Amino acid sequence: MKAICSFCLIILFLLGWSENAAAGELSERLANFPQWEKLTSVQPASGDLAYPEWMAGSWKVTSTLIDLAAPLAPDIVTPGFESNRQQLNQPVSFMVRFIKQKPPITFGLKFIPQINNQSPILIADRAFNSLNLAKAYLGDQAVLSVKVDPASPNRQITFLRGERQLVSIVTSRATEITANNQFITAEVFQQLFKGGSRPYFNSVESTTAYHKLPTNNPKIEADQVTAVYLSPQDPDYFQAVSQPVALYRYRLKFFPVELPPLPEE
After folding, report:
1. Angle, alpha carbons 43-47-51 (nearest 5°)
2. What is the mean pLDDT of the segment spanning 157-174?
3. What's the Rg (C-alpha) of the chain?
4. Residue 18: burial class (beta carbons within 10 Å; 0-12, 13-18, 19+)
5. What single string gives the DSSP state of each residue in 98-157?
6. Higher model confidence: residue 43 or residue 62?
7. How far is the CA of 113 from the CAs of 40, 50, 88, 119, 153, in angstroms?
8. Does residue 19 register a pLDDT over 70?
9. In Å, how far from its chain's centre is CA 112?
10. Is the pLDDT of residue 18 over 80?
11. Of 1, 74, 83, 218, which has the maximum CB count within 10 A?
């Protein structure tokens, strides 16, 4: 269960349309770590998250946990928080890619992929990315597959050995572009882990600032903070209110690699 919690924390940046946040709010949040409360400017997630063109292609990502905090400790501490200290300054590497895709036509909450007159957008290859991330953290033998809901790019299921599943649903998001060309995203999603003695729920927000560098070694760096909030099913939910019970800060480095190209849709 502790390993699953660790994996859940950073899966969000691999998920993925973009709603703008109030000017500067996201960058201020990153600067104010670990003073953190729930975002108020996010909008309901609709369609896919569009990334900037300079993130196109395939990448080897190195993710390093550089700081963590439990704002409500010792009264409330999430499962696995203390064991996650062992991951401090320990880099983990995995492959990801960002691909072009035409936006689907939307009817309410239903998304119908089809050829249309809109220009393609750059999106994360969610199944590919999440599978590689899960294997990097949990091991090749622990992860069976990752499936994205064909009716919504914001819902995916990671299938694990032992008939266990991690269901992740992006519920809201915001983006921001700063004066120095940083691309910042914030997404809120609900998680359900099934297959243990009882289902485990929580709410997670991940805010990530991507910065293009003038070199290829690495070509992109990112500062990511992941905040874990209690779900309404938790008995301590009203005690925590809008405060996170765990905060994790990661440094991400993206190195360009060559992978077989995918056909554009």
Report:
1. 85
2. 90
3. 18
4. buried
5. EEEEPPPEEETTEEE----SSPPEEEE-HHHHHHHHHHHHH-GGGEEEEEE-TT-TTEEE
6. 62
7. 31, 16, 41, 14, 10
8. no
9. 24
10. no
11. 218
Instruction: Provide the 10 A C-beta neighbour count for residue 197.
Output: 6
Q: How far apart are CA 120 and CA 55, in angstroms?
A: 14
Looking at the whole model, is its pTM more than 0.90? no
Site of tokens 């940083």: 182
**Are the C-beta atoms of residues 255 and 62 closer than 8 Å to each other?**
yes
Give the model's confidence band at 107: pLDDT under 50 very low, under 70 low, under 90 confident, else very high: very low
CA dihedral 207, 7, 4, 169 (to 10 degrees): 50
Residue in the block written with tokens 């992109």: 220
CB-based contact 153:48 (threshold 8 Å): yes
Q: Which two tokens stand for residue 159?
A: 């299938």
